[in-house]
Amino acid sequence: MRIQLERHGVEADVHEGYGLALVSVWIELVVWTDGRWFRWSSGRTSISGRPVYSFTPALDVVTAARRIADRYNELRRNHPCSPHFLGEES
Fold this sequence. Notes:
Blueprint: H1 2-6, E1 13-17, E2 20-26, E3 29-33, E4 37-45, E5 51-57, H2 61-78
Antiparallel strand pairs: 1-2, 2-3, 3-4, 4-5
């Protein structure tokens, strides 16, 4: 997944344990997989107020990476890096 995301210009950190792998992408965007599905927050909520998740089969890494990159770009527009994080603050 990390390699596919890099092809979309998205850097990510991968962490694993307890039968899951987590891909930390951006603020409010963590992808997790149990080896069967990739799952991440779509940014929407249901009528009952619960988060709505996006899913893609883990065998389709290319499609998952494209969809995650789309969500990443959406979040970047809404949550740009702070100057402090980028080392630009005095």
